Amino acid sequence: MNDDLLFIDDDEEDVVEDLGTWKILIVDDEPEVHAITKLALNDFFLNGKTLEFISAYSGDEAKRCFREHDDIAVVLLDVVMESDDAGLLVAEYVRNELDNHFTRIILRTGQPGQAPEKDVIINYDINDYKSKTELTAQKLFTVIIAALRSYRDIIVIEESRAGLEKIIDASVDLFSSSSLEKFMQGIIQQLASILGCSKDAAYITTAVAATPDASPNPTNALDLNELYVFAGNGEYSDKEGVLLKDAVSPEEYELCKRAMRDREIVYAEDHVVAYCNSKTQNGALLYLSGLPRRIGENDKHLVRRFSNSVQLAFDNVLKTIDVESTQREIIERLGKAMEHDGQGSNHIARMSAMAEVMGCGIGMNENDVRLLKHAIPLHDVGNSRVPVTILRKTEPLTEDEIFAIRQHAEFGYQILKDSSRPTIQLAATLARQHHERWDGKGYPEGLQGQAILLQSRIATLLDVFDALINTRPYKTAWPLDKVEKVINEEKGRHFDPLLVDYLLNHIEKFMAIQHQHPDIPEYV
Amino acid sequence: MNDDLLFIDDDEEDVVEDLGTWKILIVDDEPEVHAITKLALNDFFLNGKTLEFISAYSGDEAKRCFREHDDIAVVLLDVVMESDDAGLLVAEYVRNELDNHFTRIILRTGQPGQAPEKDVIINYDINDYKSKTELTAQKLFTVIIAALRSYRDIIVIEESRAGLEKIIDASVDLFSSSSLEKFMQGIIQQLASILGCSKDAAYITTAVAATPDASPNPTNALDLNELYVFAGNGEYSDKEGVLLKDAVSPEEYELCKRAMRDREIVYAEDHVVAYCNSKTQNGALLYLSGLPRRIGENDKHLVRRFSNSVQLAFDNVLKTIDVESTQREIIERLGKAMEHDGQGSNHIARMSAMAEVMGCGIGMNENDVRLLKHAIPLHDVGNSRVPVTILRKTEPLTEDEIFAIRQHAEFGYQILKDSSRPTIQLAATLARQHHERWDGKGYPEGLQGQAILLQSRIATLLDVFDALINTRPYKTAWPLDKVEKVINEEKGRHFDPLLVDYLLNHIEKFMAIQHQHPDIPEYV
C-alpha cells in the first residue's frame, strides 16, 4: 500500500481543483486520534474537493459544531467520551433535534467487540462503525469515500426535491414571467445537481425582453449585450436580471461568446456553456459551473436535451402570450368598427370592466364572470349591418329607421349563433336580448323578467348607464345625479330591480371605471 | 446483541410488508460462505423490502448473473476464486463492460491484511471491503444497510434524471395533450422516487376530455366514471387512457372515492391518494403506491404542493387553448360579417391556407409566413363601411358606387392602423394595398411593382384567384382553365409575375385547398 495513492480522485488524475471542500467533523476526547485521522486523510480528495477538518473533543462540543455548520458531510464520532453514550447522544441530537438527515455518521468505538445496537444503526442512520484499532489509512480512506459518496447522493436528491417543488409551483401559471423564471430555476437546479455540478448555474437569454412576433435579426446574431441572467441558482440566484457580461468573469464571458457564435456546447475546465436553440430568438445559454472533470455520456445527453428544447419552450410560451394579446386587439378593433362607435370610444372596455364588477358583486361564479366579461364586448356587432347614416343621425328617427336600428339585435345574433364555444353562445344571446326590458316592453321578443337571461339584464342596464353618463352622437353626457334618477325611475320597468340596487349602491365602483376608460376625441 | 433485532426496519416496527425485494448477489467459491451469509441476513428487511439471494460460485458465473439481472442491489464479492483477481475482474466487468454503476460492490477477502489497491476502490466504485473473518451477523448487517441505502439513493437520482428529461422534453410544447402527459409523467416519476415510493404511480383526471369553459357541475362532483389515468409511471404507464375503476383494485378504488369526496389527501397502508384541487374541473387524483410507512413532513409538504398546484396548471393550459380557439372563432365570425361575404363563405379560410402555401413556396421565413397567415383574413374588413346593397349588387355599378366600394381599402386601413402588433400592422397594410396592381393601375395609391409590399401582392393574386374560381353574387364559378388563362394574361399587369409563376406551377396545391374549404350554401 502506497500512501501516495491517497490523493487519487475519481478521475485518475492527481490535480487538485478548487471546487470547495467536504467538511469532516472529528469527535474524540483523545487529541491523538484527531492527529492520526488528519494525517491518514491528508491529501485526500473526491470530485475535485479536498477535506476540511473540524475538531470537537466532547459530545457537547460536537453538538455546538453541528449547530454552527449545516454542511458537515461526515462525522467520525467517538462513542465513549464524557459519558458512556456521549457519542450516541450526539447522533440522536443530530437526527432528532436538528432534524439533520444529511450528515453521514461513522461511529468509532474503543473496543473492537463493542458494537452498537442494531436499532441505533437503523434509527440514527449510522453509515458505519469502526473500532479504533481499524484506524489505518486504508480503512479510513474506504469508509470516508463511501460516506462522502452517500452524502453527495443525498444532497443531489435534496436539490432534486427543491427543484421539483419549484417546477410544480411554476407550472400553475407558466404565462407569467415570474413563473417562467421559477420553472427555469427548478430545472437548472435539478440539472446541476444531477450532473454533479456546483449549485452555481444560470440560464441566460434575451427572450423575455423581445417579442417573438419579430423576426430574428441575423446581422445582429452575436450581440451579447442583449443577454442577461434570466434564472439563476446558487451564486447566480442574486444575479437575475443582470447583464451577462456583468455576471461572469472575463474568461467565462469568452466561453459564452464562443458557445453563442458556434451555436454549440462548450465543455471547458470545470464548467459548461451550452448554446440553446431558438427558432425566433438569437438563442440562449445554459451556464453550469463546478462540472466534474469526467462527465459521462448520460450527462452530456441531458445537457443536449436541455440545449435543444428549453428555449423552444420559452419561445412557445411567449408566442402564446403574444397570439392572445394580438387576437384580443383584433377583436377590440373589429368590435369597435362594427358598433360604429368610432375608434375613440371606450364603451367596450367600460362594459367589460363594469360587467366584471357587477357579476362578482351579485355573486356569479368566477367562470361565469369570465365568460360575461369576454362576451359582453360583442353585444352590438349587429350594428355593422345597420347603415351608419341612421346610427349617427342626430334628428328624430323615422319609423323605418327605428325598425332598421332594432334589427341590430337580430343581426348580432345571426353573426354569433350556433357556436360550440360558451363565450360565443353567451355573446349571441346578449346580442339578441340586450334591448329586452324587465317589464316585457323591449325588443325583439318582448321577453319579461327572469325570462331574460341574467347576463342580458346586466348588459341592458350597463349599456344604458354608459350611454347616459357619456356623450353620444345624439346626446351630451348627463350629470351623475340625473343618470341615477332616471335609472332609479326605470327600476322594475326597463331594468331588473336587484341589478339597479347593486349599481346605485356601488355607484363609486362604476364611476371609477368611467374615469379609468374615458372616451378620447375622434381622430378621424 | 440480539439476533431477533435483525428484522427491525426504518420504521421501528417489525411487520414485513410485501413491497418486493432487494436482490443480493453472493459470489464465493466456498459454499459455506453462502450458507453463513444467508443465515446471518435471514429476516433482514429495509423499507418494507426483504432480501432475495442469488448465488454464484465463480467469477464467470457472477458475470452471467449480472447479465441476467439488471437490478442487483448489492454484490458480496469474493476476490480470490478461479484466479487471484477473479473478483476484481467481475468488478471491472460490471462497471466497464456492462456500464452498471448502480449495484453496490462489497469485496470480501480471505486474509485480513489483503486490502485492495485504492485505485480499485475508486475506479470500480467499491462500497466497502471486508475480510471474511468479519462475517459476523452484526458487521454484515451494517454493511448491507449502508450499501442498500446507497443503492436506493442512486436509483432515486436515476429516476429524477429520467423524470427531468421528460419534463424538459415536454416543456417544448405544453399545449399539446401528448406533451402534457409527458410532463405529468416526468413530475410523478420524480415525486414517486423522491418520496421513496415504488415506480407505480398515476395521475388521474377528467380534465382533458372536458372544456374548461364549462362550469363545474356541482351535482355531479363525484362521478368517478369520468376519471381516467392521464399519465402513469411503472405499472401504470400501460394504463394511460384507462378508466380509473378498471386501473386499480376495488380497495384502491374506494380510497380514490374517499379522496375525491372529501377533497383531501388520504395516506393509507402503503399508498397515498391525493385529491388535486381544480378551479374549473371536479378535481383530479394523484395515486402513489409503495409508500414508505413513515413519511416525513418534507414529503407530505411536497405532496400537498402537488395537490394544490398541478391541476391548476392543467386548467390553465386548457384555458389557454380554449381562449385562443374562442378568439380565433370570434375573429372569423366578425371578419366574415365585416366582409359581407355571408356566413357560408369560406373565402377567409382559403385565403389563409393559400397564403401559407405560397409564403413557404417562395421562401419566406417561418415567422413571416405565420404573420401573413394570421393577417390576411382581415384584408376586407373595410367592407363593413360599404353599404351591403352595393357589395351585393349584380348589375353594373355606377361611378359613385365604384367610388364607395374602393373606399373599403382605406376603411380597412383605418380600422387596423397604428397597432404595435406586427400581425395587425401587416393586416393594415394588406387592407390598404390589396387592390394595388403590379403595373401601377390599381387603387388607392396607384403603387407599382415592388413598391407594393410582397405580402400585399400575394393577397391581391390570391384574392382574385379565389373570386374567379368560386361563385360570387355577381358571377358564377369559372372553370380552372379559364381562370389560369386570365391569371396568366394578367401576369406583369395586374399581378407580380413571379407569384403568378408559382401559382400556376403549383396549381394542384391551391386547388386542393379549394376542395378542402368549399363555400357552403347560405342558410340565411
TrEMBL record, chains A, B:
Q: Which Gene3D superfamilies match?
A: 3.40.50.2300, Hypothetical protein af1432
Q: Name one GO molecular function term.
A: phosphoric diester hydrolase activity
What InterPro entries does the record point to?
CheY-like_superfamily (IPR011006), Cyclic_di-GMP/3'3'-cGAMP_PDE (IPR052020), DUF3369 (IPR021800), HD/PDEase_dom (IPR003607), HD_GYP_dom (IPR037522), Sig_transdc_resp-reg_receiver (IPR001789)
Q: Where is the Response regulatory domain?
A: 23-147
PROSITE patterns annotated for this entry?
Answer: HD_GYP (PS51832), RESPONSE_REGULATORY (PS50110)
Taxonomic lineage of the native organism: Bacteria, Pseudomonadati, Pseudomonadota, Gammaproteobacteria, Alteromonadales
Entries under Pfam families matching the protein: DUF3369, HD_5
- Which CDD domains does the entry link to? HDc, REC
**PTM-bearing positions, type 4-aspartylphosphate:** 78
For this entry, the protein name equals Response regulator
Could you list this entry's UniProt keywords, alphabetically sorted: Phosphoprotein
Q: Where is the HD-GYP domain?
A: 323-519
One example of a Gene Ontology biological process annotation: phosphorelay signal transduction system
